[in-house]
Amino acid sequence: MTFIAPHTATTIDGLTIERFTPPTELTIEQTARFLRMSERHVNDLLDAGRVASRQENGERLVQWESLSEFEQERERGHKRLDEMIRWEQELGLHEMEKYND
Predict the structure, then answer these.
(1) What are the extents of the domains in the chain?
(2) Which among 56, 27, 57, 64 is positioned nearest to 42, based on CA atoms?
(3) pLDDT tens, position by position, 14-60
(4) What CATH architecture is 24-100?
(5) What pTM, to 2 d.p., does this model score?
(6) What share of the chain is helix, strand, coil (3-state, %, to 5)?
(7) Measuring CA to CA, how many Å separate 36 from each of 50, 67, 83?
């Protein structure tokens, strides 16, 4: 995935270190690729206020900071779900459901 964004390079003792500066805004298409979801779903998230955006010349631009916070929360949710599944397996709750049917 390619985002055109400024970056800086610093040379220390002959070693060049490049630092990527994320863009401040992304298009709907870029956001959809970043989140690995459809553009329609991205628009639904924006409509619901889950990610900040603004309109410019008829195009919706997504705020990088808000998008980054959303992605971090989504990752935390995935980790919590994985932990709940692990607990269920350790406690044998999934096997108990088989006997309760």
Answers:
(1) 24-100
(2) 27
(3) 887 777 677 799 999 999 999 999 999 999 999 999 999 999 999 99
(4) Orthogonal Bundle (1.10)
(5) 0.62
(6) 50, 25, 25
(7) 16, 13, 23
